[in-house]
Every structure is written in C-alpha cells, then in structure tokens.
Predict the structure.
Amino acid sequence: MDFSEKIEFDDLQNRLMHTEVLQSPSELHGLVSGMLCCRPELETERLLADLWTQLDLDPVELHEVDGILRLLFDDIRAALNDTDFIFYPLLPGDDEDLSWRTECLGGWCQGFLSGFGLGTDPDKGPLDNESGEILRNFYEFTKVSSVYDDEDIEELEADYFELVEFLKVTVIHLYLDETE
C-alpha cells in the first residue's frame, strides 16, 4: 500500500488490523499529532522511540508497525508544515454512521492528549492560557456522546463538522506556536 498521498482511515485500519496495536486509526493519529505539536523539532527516530514505549509492543510487533508509524509521522508532519493548512484529524469518512465518527473523534482527542503529554518537554514550563484552554476543550471532546436522537441528525452533522474544523484549526495553532 502506498501512503505517499494522504493516509486514509480505512487503509490505516486495515494495516493495523493484523498487529497488536490496540489504538484505533483515529486515536493513533491523534497520539502522533499530539507528539508532533509539542516537539516539532524532534527527529522521527526520537519520536518513534517514545511512541514505541507508549504502545508497549514486543520486538516482532514493532518491526511490523515500524513502517506504518514512520509513514504516519511523515504524513502528519508534512500536513502540519503545509502552507495551505491541509492538516485534518484522521476520522472515518462522511459516509460512515455519525455515532462511529463521533466515537472516533473522541478517541482522536484522547490520543492527542496522550501524545501531547508524552511529548511535552518538562524543562519548557507551563502552557500559555490559550493552549491550556485548547487542551481542556480536547479533554471535553473525549466525553462526547455517540448516542443521539435521529430527529436532530442534520443539526448533529453540522455540530460534528464544526468540531472537526475546530480540531484542525487548534492543532495547527498549537503546532505553529511550538515552531515559532
């Protein structure tokens, strides 16, 4: 499988299905995104070493997922550095059920918070108020409910779209803050 374009949710899910990685594609994407947002200067090798510790995989499994994770880091780093702001959280397609997409959105946020915590430089000091507020919002999104009344589906779809756009913009904001 060629990941040189853009990694898609289903493609990553299919690749991870045969491994011991317990995170969903969204949660794993969030984890890597969080790591890159707080330590954009680190080389992929260092970030991968930290990620391998987090995933707690045996050496055989590490070998099987190493290429996938390298491609994921490269894809996310490229998207975050793109001047057209092409970064988006990796979530199921719009043709999937809203409850599944919502559950994955919460998982993406959980992954992001874990990655941000894993990548945080303890010598850097506390976050500014705006970054702290963004992370608090992400925490609240981890609790988002995937149970809804079918009568409100159009409004819920619009709310979901707004959350995804909010994640995109705020992740880029966090990343640019760290690269300045």
In short: DSSP finds seven helices and no strands in the chain. The two ends are 35 Å apart (CA to CA).
